[in-house]
């Protein structure tokens, strides 16, 4: 019988009486949403991060709905309500410990946990499994009307929102004057639905609600009401039907459908008349209407003034066909400005597109700048835009933001997109440094995307379903990305598929993004990486050329040594630039793993220091001499849950012209508090996250300047069956977190992976770089000599199932030196430290575990059959 875990527990018990225990309670990362613990089931591992831990510490738990308080007394036995949690691992600079939640705890029940010293000093508590509402979607609703074909529902996005034990979650809306409404979230019907509901709870709205600004609260079983702090629900009066301006009205030129005549002048005059009236609906009656932009001034096509709507009789009835040669510039068909809608139309373009530059858009969000807007006193934000129930077929691009203007309350719903290149292209403009790019309170739901013909083998680029360069409360859910369709291809010989499905870059930080229940097929049938869902670092900006030393800090501020970068993207960074979407990340020393948003900052040029005000306050105040930080944009509070990614053949062709790759869910950028859960992938590249550091220094002048840090990343409950090409080492699969650092002694690497949890996943016949169904490979330099830097700390891998990793190693087409099939693979030269492995099952796996880490703990109790980390003798 294996006794390693038992002996570890006994050792921990003996140390409780250590005479050298210090006399101060440890500080824990406890602020919800900011790298603090979120959830845990019985028999799960859980990392508790902070500072000031001691070998004599204990961890105590108590249910939030317990009948009585613990009153600072340690429970004698474990029950469903209270008890002691065994500590199984303490990392080596003592900034975290790992516990194993006892079997007596109940799944889904909300608990508080404390770290208690030998002198009975109690830390502030951390919570797990407690409902945490974070934001609502949509941001506003009408009193009784349906908004953008979304139905009369309200969605609350957050954590731990699933209803359990037959007790439904309740939502309460409290308005002025005592008006209140209570909504009920139905119980999830399946485990997958429950996993999605853990992050987004949906409730039906009453038929009518009095217009007001409502406080939103939720209540779980036996718990108090929890108020949503940062947002209120706006209920607007139902929109009044504005005056109608039909393009077949003789007053606008007497145009008629289906006559192949040019209807451009009638459309332009109707839009102008509606604009003069202050509001209006420009109607496109049934039939085929033919327009061109050659006669329109500027580079905005047909401009929709504020409060003007463009409405067809339905995409099966009203058709708008664009004609005319390609004009210089962006050349959109329509430009929306503010409070516009485009509904019930089918758009087509008679131009045959042969290159990306020809790919003219149908709808542009905001007019193109007519001069340098860097000194403008007002924002150029485009807001309250509804694009719903349309078909975009055989067009260049559907919706773009070529002016790079900030966007708010954009609703793109129930459309069909068949674009030559990108259907939704909202990357922002890196050249616009004077006004941060934003996409706020936006919903993209219930759309269907089918591929077009764009393909550039040299650039490895092709059709993209959607690309966005920022987010703040964005709901991107329940869309179908069908790369198997050929109905929108220009020529029958054109290959179907996408270059990528859903793509986010960083022309600002991406915060509070929900990517849920999308169906994605054949995202790698064109060219390039073929990601299904990609979180990308392109557009990211760094405050300093490398990590900075912490000089001093207080509860809500930090001073670091260094000079801020004065330019970004070749332009002077304006005053306050780094307080618009930038974060401070603590990468070494006390408070490691914390990230905080920058509120303001001051520079001291004499001492070469910068002081940042941050929010919220630190849980653990950073300090020297080991303290280091990074200032940059990041992805924060992103939930990628319940998506389905198909890459089997059929329906896909596996025709990627770059490499055998497709269907990846990938994180290529700094992130904090990201969850990837309950996704289903077939014959894909699986799930990948990047961890690394690179600095441009005298010893490496060509090195990039970036630090890709993952902190509090949870990958849980995903199903990955197969990879693109099992026989080739060019093909990857499973779950992998690549790591590496530049060989720059002037800038040694920090910890770039902290508190990552990989659990409850099922991985079948899908291994990664040099092998490993769960794989942490070294894919670049190991940093400067001696190369044994601690890249990754406190990695938790538990309760996963890995099957069918047997047979010969793949053909070495990419020279990745894969010589075996393995279950869990931890590479490097002691670059992965203080990992904990528990409860992982390996079935038909050639080598269950390959471990080159330092201080890896393998929890073994007895000789469990099929254990990856504890193989039977």
Write a concise synopsis of the structure shown:
The chain is mainly beta and 873 residues long.
Describe the structure.
The chain is mainly β and 873 residues long. Among the domains are: 4-128, Immunoglobulins (Immunoglobulin-like); 132-236, Immunoglobulin-like (Sandwich); 548-632. The protein has three helices and 78 strands. The chain has a 21-stranded parallel sheet that branches. The chain has a 16-stranded mixed sheet that branches. Strands 20-23-26-29-32-35-40-43-54-58-63-67-72-76 form a 14-stranded parallel sheet, covered by helices on one side.
Which characteristics define this entry?
mainly beta, Immunoglobulin-like, 21-stranded parallel beta sheet, 16-stranded mixed beta sheet, 4% helix, disordered N terminus
**What structural class should be given to the helix and strand makeup?**
mainly beta
Radius of gyration from the CA trace? 28 Å
Q: Which descriptor suits the 3D outline?
A: globular
Question: Would you report the number of β strands?
Answer: 78
Distance between the termini: 10 Å
Helix content: under 10%
């Amino acid at each position: 019988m294996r006794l390693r875990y038992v002996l570890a527990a006994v050792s921990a018990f003996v140390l409780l009486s250590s005479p050298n225990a210090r006399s101060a309670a440890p500080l824990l990362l406890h602020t919800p949403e900011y790298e603090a613990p979120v959830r845990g089931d019985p028999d799960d591992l859980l990392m508790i991060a902070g500072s000031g831990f001691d070998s004599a510490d204990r961890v105590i738990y108590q249910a939030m709905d317990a009948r009585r308080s613990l009153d600072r007394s340690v429970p004698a036995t474990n029950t469903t309500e209270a008890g002691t949690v065994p500590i199984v691992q303490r990392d080596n600079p003592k900034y975290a410990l790992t516990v194993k939640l006892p079997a007596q705890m109940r799944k889904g029940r909300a608990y508080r946990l404390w770290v208690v010293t030998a002198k009975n000093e109690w830390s502030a508590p951390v919570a797990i499994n407690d409902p945490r509402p974070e934001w609502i979607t949509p941001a506003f609703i009408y009193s009784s009307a349906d908004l953008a074909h979304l139905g009369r529902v309200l969605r609350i996005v957050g954590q731990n929102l699933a209803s359990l034990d037959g007790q439904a979650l309740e939502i309460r809306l409290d308005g002025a004057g005592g008006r209140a409404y209570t909504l009920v979230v139905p119980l999830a019907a399946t485990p997958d639905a429950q996993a999605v509901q853990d992050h987004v709870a949906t409730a039906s709205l009453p038929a009518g609600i009095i217009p007001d600004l409502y406080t939103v609260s939720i209540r779980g079983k036996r718990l108090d009401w929890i108020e949503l702090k940062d947002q209120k629900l706006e209920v607007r009066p139902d929109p009044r039907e504005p005056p109608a301006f039909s393009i077949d009205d003789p007053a606008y030129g007497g145009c008629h459908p289906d006559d192949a005549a040019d209807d451009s002048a009638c459309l332009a005059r109707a839009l102008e008349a509606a604009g003069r009236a202050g509001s209006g609906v420009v109607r496109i009656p049934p039939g085929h209407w033919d327009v061109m932009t050659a006669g329109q001034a500027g580079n905005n096509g047909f401009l929709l003034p504020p409060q003007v709507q463009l409405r067809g009789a339905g995409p099966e009835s009203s058709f708008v066909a664009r004609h005319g040669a390609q004009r210089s510039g962006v050349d959109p068909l329509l430009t929306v400005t503010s409070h516009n809608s485009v509904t019930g139309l089918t758009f087509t373009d008679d131009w045959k597109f042969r290159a990306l530059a020809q790919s003219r858009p149908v709808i542009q969000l905001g007019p193109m700048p007519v001069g340098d807007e860097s000194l403008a006193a007002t924002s150029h934000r485009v807001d309250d835009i509804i694009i719903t129930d349309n078909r975009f077929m055989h067009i260049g691009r559907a919706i773009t933001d070529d002016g790079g203007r900030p966007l708010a309350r954009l609703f793109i719903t129930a459309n069909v997109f068949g674009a030559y290149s990108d259907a939704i292209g909202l990357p922002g403009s890196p050249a616009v440094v004077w006004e941060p790019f934003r996409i706020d309170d936006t919903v993209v739901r219930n759309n269907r995307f089918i591929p077009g013909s764009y393909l550039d083998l040299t650039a490895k680029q092709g059709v993209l379903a959607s690309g966005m360069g920022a987010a703040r409360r964005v709901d991107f859910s329940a869309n179908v990305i069908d790369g198997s369709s050929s109905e929108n291809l220009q020529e029958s010989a054109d290959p179907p598929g996408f270059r990528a499905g859903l793509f986010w870059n960083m022309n600002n930080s991406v915060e509070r993004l929900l990517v849920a229940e999308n169906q994605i097929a054949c995202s790698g049938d064109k060219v390039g990486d073929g990601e299904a869902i990609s979180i990308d670092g392109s557009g990211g900006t760094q405050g300093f050329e490398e990590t900075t030393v912490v000089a001093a800090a207080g509860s809500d501020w930090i001073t670091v040594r260094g000079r801020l970068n004065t330019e970004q993207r070749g332009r002077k960074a304006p005053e306050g630039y780094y307080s618009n979407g930038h974060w401070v990340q603590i990468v070494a020393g006390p408070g490691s793993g914390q990230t905080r948003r920058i509120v303001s900052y001051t520079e001291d040029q004499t001492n070469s220091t910068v002081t940042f005000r941050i929010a919220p306050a630190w849980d653990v105040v950073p300090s020297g001499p080991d303290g280091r930080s990074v200032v940059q944009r990041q992805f924060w509070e992103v939930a990628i849950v319940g998506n389905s990614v198909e890459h089997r053949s059929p329906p896909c062709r596996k025709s990627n012209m770059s490499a055998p790759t497709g269907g990846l869910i990938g994180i290529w950028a700094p992130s904090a508090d990201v969850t990837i859960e309950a996704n289903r992938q077939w014959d894909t590249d699986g799930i990948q996250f990047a961890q690394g550091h690179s600095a441009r220094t005298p010893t490496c002048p060509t090195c990039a300047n970036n630090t890709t840090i993952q902190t509090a990343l949870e990958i849980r409950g995903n199903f990955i069956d197969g990879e693109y090409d099992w026989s080739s080492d060019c093909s990857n699969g499973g779950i992998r977190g690549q790591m590496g650092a530049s060989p720059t002694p002037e800038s040694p690497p920090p910890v770039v992976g902290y508190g990552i949890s990989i659990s409850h996943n099922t991985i079948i016949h899908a291994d990664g770089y040099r092998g490993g169904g769960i794989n942490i490979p070294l894919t670049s330099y190991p940093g400067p000599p001696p190369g044994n830097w601690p890249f990754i700390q406190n990695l938790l891998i538990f309760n996963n199932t890995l099957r069918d990793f047997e047979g010969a190693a793949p053909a070495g087409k990419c020279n990745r030196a894969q010589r075996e099939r393995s279950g869990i693979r931890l590479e490097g030269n002691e670059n992965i430290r203080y990992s904990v492995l528990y409860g992982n099952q390996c079935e038909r796996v050639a080598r269950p575990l390959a471990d080159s880490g330092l201080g890896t703990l393998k929890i073994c109790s007895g000789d469990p059959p099929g254990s990856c980390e504890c193989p039977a003798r």
